[in-house]
Amino acid sequence: MTASHETTTATASLVTAETLRDEIAAALTAARDRTAALTDCVDETDLIRQHSPLMSPLVWDLAHIANQEELWLLRDVGGLDPMHPEIDPLYNAFEHPRSERPTLPLLPPGEARSYAAEVRGRVLDVLERTSFSGRRLVTGGFAFGMIVQHEQQHDETMLITHQLRKGAPVLTAPPPAPAPADAISLPAEVLVPGGPFTMGTSTEPWALDNERPAHAVTVPAFFIDTTPVTNAAYQAFIAAGGYDDPRFWTPEGWDHRQRAGVTAPMTWRRDGGQWLRTAFGVTEPVAPAEPVLHVSWYEADAYARWAGRRLPTEPEWEKAARFDPVTGLSRRFPWGDDAPTAERANLGQAHLRPAPAGAYPEGAAPCGARQLIGDVWEWTASDLVPYPGFEAWPYPEYSEVFFGPEYKVLRGGSFAVSPAVGRATFRNWDYPIRRQIFAGFRTARSAPTDAGGPPAARSGLTVSR
Q1: Which candidate, 90, 29, 83, places its Cα nearest to that of 57?
Q2: pLDDT in tens, 397-440
Q3: I want to staple 309 with a disulfide (CB 3.0 to 4.6 A). Which of 49, 226, 262, 443 is the partner?
Q4: Which residue, 463, 464, 465, is CA-closest to 190?
């Protein structure tokens, strides 16, 4: 199989410039609506406060979103003069680490909102006169799509800030639908056949540089969990002394677990005979059927070792999510090439929690695995490295400066991720100690050469409901 076996329907819907403008305008509006919801729900004191040294003040995110939009869409695409060049250094993420940002002379909330609104109004004017041809940056609306994704990624970051924020709840959302009746009978794991598949993309118009180019990868047969690991299964790991046995931890992980005093997922605490968690200001019993959330790579890896398994590699994860053995093609999404819907995946902060394991059968991959898109980011075993033929574009700071063994790759998105980002080729990464992100995991194992199908569910790995 060659890289040409990637499906190309990703561009089929972008038929005319008018259609593309409408899609871009809708995506820009959706992102801004979410930004407003995350910043309008708190007072000015909360906007300017740093709720955690790991995160920026919300007002920094708000103005940074606008500043990046001005830099790329007004100055570069539109050729307009800078509006406020003096603030550029304040909102350069590489110039000021998050811990320093509260000390900067940031725009106050009212000015930040006015700046964002003025930039957006001018951007919509630029959009109307952009031809989407003649420059790589505008072909397929890429620059606009990049900014949409940038804002939506900061919306996820701001939601993390809300998770770390102390005080009364300010965000609400309905819970996801319960898992369907067949979830109780799902196998613990599914078989993904060995052989080549096309990883990455060369046709997705808004794909970012680390997703490119499409290239052939051969993956031996393996089994992967049908659903993400649940809270109930993770509680079994805790009860079995998993946090106290160095055999299950890498040396670095064991050292971190001891120094940081990690004994459970980030938001969990023991109260008598039950586990409680705090989510966006609400404390409640841990839901056994939901995927475990707020665990680091070290914790995920230790669980997998305890279970006699391992984390999937990044190519394994993507093959499970995209490969269709009937056609031999790699899909845009596990379910096919059509865009995400509420019936297929838990995305867009529509629900402020993962859905129960086994949900969204309409979003299942050809291998039978569910919830590969949405619900929780999934840690993989892989370091962040460039694909063969990688080109840093349109700027090296998006991906290239992060390549190396310091960062582990996460795939699949979470409930906090926008559909604009929640595609099967999207790559996320973070330090293996990170727990504030909306991350969980599923486990895998190599298949014997004569594997013909998944075995019966095993104790401790069966999806708990």
Answers
A1: 90
A2: 999 999 999 999 999 999 999 999 999 999 999 999 999 999 99
A3: 443
A4: 463
